[in-house]
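Colleagues,

For the teaching module next term, I've prepared a clean inverse folding example: a structure given as tokens, and then the sequence designed for it. I'd like students to try predicting residues themselves before seeing the answer, so please don't circulate the second half yet.
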């Protein structure tokens, strides 16, 4: 295929410059190479394409008919090469991202919006869901996840560390009291997601570890619903600090037992390959990593 392109470009340059020697100088090859390429192209199409005399050359009827078709191919190729070259620095095209619902809505979506505003040729599609999806089937470019990596066929790019913390609304804590020790949680209402039956495992700076078995009268299969219940003052939930960072800063939620938190879990991105990563992917990973570390 590359030889075909060389022959087409050589043919075009011969007619554009008016001689084989001028085409050779323009292409940076020898006169012998130019002659061989022209002969190979003529043999491939089964037609003589150029009339040559000692003083001039001109296209045959077949050559004149072929030239504009080849020029369209070469123009398209040049445009594609320019697009690829520009795309190394400027993000171009659609980036397809999947992420957990809370993390995606609070952090991934704003980053994508900022990139779209700053780069006119950047587009994005964001799929939110807490379940695992087939990344190849969904044509996902970047999957953002929390916890141990499970897709061994993809490359993992760590973005930040995440800790889960206990939070509740100030109104709930004013009404029910602020726990002073992990044992005090036995007298409080817990909020949790369906399917999470493991105890809340917490540790402090001194390395002490406790397992809490909260009484959870409200449970949901949707993490956003659990979050809403906490905002409504209905109990205490264990949630990623990154997911509740905005609510903590605004005062809508308050951290409970601030000296205790869950073990660290990585927030990472899965990408198909670490080689030939598109500029749009590199830019997104850098921007998201910065946003997550900033909290």
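(Answer key — instructors only)
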């Amino acid at each position: 295929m590359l030889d075909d392109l060389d022959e087409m470009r050589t043919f075009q340059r011969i007619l554009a410059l008016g001689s084989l020697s001028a085409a050779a100088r323009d292409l940076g090859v020898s006169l012998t190479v130019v002659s061989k390429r022209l002969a190979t192209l003529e043999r491939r199409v089964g037609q003589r394409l150029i009339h040559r005399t000692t003083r001039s050359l001109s296209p045959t009827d077949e050559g004149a008919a072929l030239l504009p078709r080849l020029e369209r191919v070469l123009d398209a190729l040049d445009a594609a090469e320019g697009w690829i070259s520009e795309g190394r620095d400027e993000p171009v095209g659609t980036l397809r991202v999947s992420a957990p619902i809370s993390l995606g809505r609070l952090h991934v979506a704003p980053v994508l919006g900022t990139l779209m505003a700053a780069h006119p040729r950047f587009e994005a599609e964001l799929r939110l869901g807490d379940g695992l999806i087939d990344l190849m089937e969904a044509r996902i470019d970047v999957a953002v996840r929390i916890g141990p990596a499970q897709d061994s066929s993809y490359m993992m790019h760590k973005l930040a560390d995440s800790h889960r913390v206990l939070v509740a609304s100030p109104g709930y804590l004013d009404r029910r009291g602020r726990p002073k020790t992990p044992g005090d949680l036995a007298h409080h209402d817990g909020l949790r997601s369906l399917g999470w039956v493991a105890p809340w495992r917490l540790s402090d700076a001194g390395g002490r570890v406790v397992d809490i078995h909260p009484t959870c009268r409200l449970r949901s299969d949707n993490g956003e619903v659990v979050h809403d219940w906490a905002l409504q003052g209905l109990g205490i939930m264990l949630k990623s600090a990154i997911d509740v960072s905005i609510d903590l800063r605004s005062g809508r939620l308050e951290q409970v037992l601030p000296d205790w938190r869950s073990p660290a879990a990585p927030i990472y991105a899965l990408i198909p390959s670490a080689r030939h990563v598109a500029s749009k992917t590199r830019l997104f990973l850098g921007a998201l990593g910065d946003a997550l570390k900033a909290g």
